[in-house]
From TrEMBL:
It holds the Pfam family DBI_PRT. Keywords: Cobalamin biosynthesis, Glycosyltransferase, Transferase. The lineage of its organism: Bacteria, Pseudomonadati, Pseudomonadota, Alphaproteobacteria, Hyphomicrobiales. This is Nicotinate-nucleotide--dimethylbenzimidazole phosphoribosyltransferase. Catalyzes the synthesis of alpha-ribazole-5'-phosphate from nicotinate mononucleotide (NAMN) and 5,6-dimethylbenzimidazole (DMB). Transmembrane segments: none annotated. GO terms for molecular function: nicotinate-nucleotide-dimethylbenzimidazole phosphoribosyltransferase activity. The gene is cobT. Its EC number is 2.4.2.21. It comes from Chelativorans salis.
Length: 337
């Protein structure tokens, strides 16, 4: 068992990231060039097949077991009027996930994926990070560990998602700490705030930057001090996927902000991740650019719940259908291969 019981232990786990399988990637790329199509003509579908080979460690990867993990958490900063919805919606949506009534229930079904929802003390909001730590060291480590353990060892792909009223403000604070700039650069409308709400969000982020100061320079501390439990759990799940040799599909702005500290701590820390989509939340594109991640889809979605990642699973399935199912030039008797 990987020890994640303290921030130091989490740091050590981040320094011990396994690499992908270069031989499997090479074999997959070679196979692509034998298939009955002009080399490169399937564009990013070819890159996806090679990526999945690299991170699953086999030249012919599969997507038999795909897990969508949705983490839920509550945020003290909601008291500052930063969301269009009341905080209790988080718990109500957790019930809706369990009843099968949310968008992600349908999208998971459509994508042929297993859905797990992991509530993280949703009845107990984090500290208001504008003036106090969002989480203690122990609370942070506990959420990271829950995320790590939520990753099933037998998964072929893990797709991350979240639910947490107020969490676009927490995500904005995390990326402001990681990449610089004030609140106005990173806040957006989230689930639908008006202009006054946007100003309150920017003010909340600026207050957090002033309150926590240079302690935010460390990416893990930033996630603990101004993040949230579901963000910490997504970070832990990204770490878990890497340690368990499972490729990762990330979702929108909140999810990307949560896993970004892994890339800031370790070069190539998110090399096992694909960005499912770019959210309509304006800052998401900026964070993806900072991380060098190119989103697969741009559908104007801004829901969270892992919904953009869930839609992108179908693109990954298309990539592997071609990679594993097409005939080679030799098999089909097609000239020129
Ligand atoms: O991740 C995104 O791109 C995203 C963009 C806008 C809204 N959300 C979702 O909306 C909720 C947060 O919105 P807010 O306005 O309460 O901060 C939370 O449950 C997220 O899943 C998520
Ligand atoms: C209803 C609702 C559903 C959501 N799912 C993710 N974020 C959400 C925010 C709201 C408000």
């Amino acid at each position: 068992m990987t020890d994640l019981s303290s921030t130091d232990a989490i740091r050590a786990a981040c320094r011990a990231l396994p690499e992908g399988d270069a031989d499997a990637a090479r074999a997959a790329a070679e196979r692509q060039n034998t298939l009955t199509k002009p080399p490169g003509s399937l564009g990013r579908l070819e890159e996806i097949a090679v990526f999945l080979a690299q991170w699953q460690g086999r030249a012919q990867p599969a997507l038999e077991t795909v897990d969508i993990l949705v983490f839920a958490g509550s945020h003290g900063v909601v008291a500052r009027g930063v969301s269009a919805f009341p905080g209790e919606v988080t718990q109500q949506m957790v019930a809706n996930f369990a009843a099968g009534g949310a968008a992600i229930n349908q999208l998971a079904k459509a994508a042929g994926a297993r859905l797990s929802v992991v509530p993280l003390e949703v009845e107990r909001p984090t500290g208001d990070f504008t003036c106090e730590p969002a989480m203690s060291n122990a609370e942070f480590a506990d959420a990271v560990q829950k995320g790590y353990e939520a990753v099933p060892a037998d998964a072929d792909l893990v797709c991350l998602g979240e639910m947490g009223i107020g969490n676009t403000t927490a995500a904005a604070a995390v990326v402001a700490a990681l990449f610089g700039g004030g609140g106005a650069r990173w806040v957006g409308r989230g689930s639908g705030v008006d202009d006054a709400g946007m100003r309150r969000k920017a003010d909340a982020v600026d207050a957090a930057l002033a309150c926590h100061g240079s302690t935010l320079a460390d990416p893990l501390s930033a996630l603990r001090l101004v993040g949230g439990r579901e963000l910490a759990a997504m970070f832990g799940a990204a770490l878990g996927a890497r340690h368990k040799h499972i490729p990762l599909l990330i979702d929108g702005f909140v999810c990307t902000a949560a896993v970004a500290p892994l890339a800031r701590l370790e070069t190539g820390g998110l090399a096992h991740a694909l960005a499912g989509h770019v959210s309509a939340e304006a800052a998401h594109g900026k964070v993806l650019a900072e991380l060098g991640l190119r989103p697969l889809l741009d559908l104007g979605m801004r829901l969270g719940e892992g919904s953009g990642g869930a839609v992108a699973i179908s693109i990954l399935r298309a990539a592997l259908a071609c990679h594993n199912g097409m005939a080679t030039f030799a098999e089909a008797g097609v000239s020129g291969g």
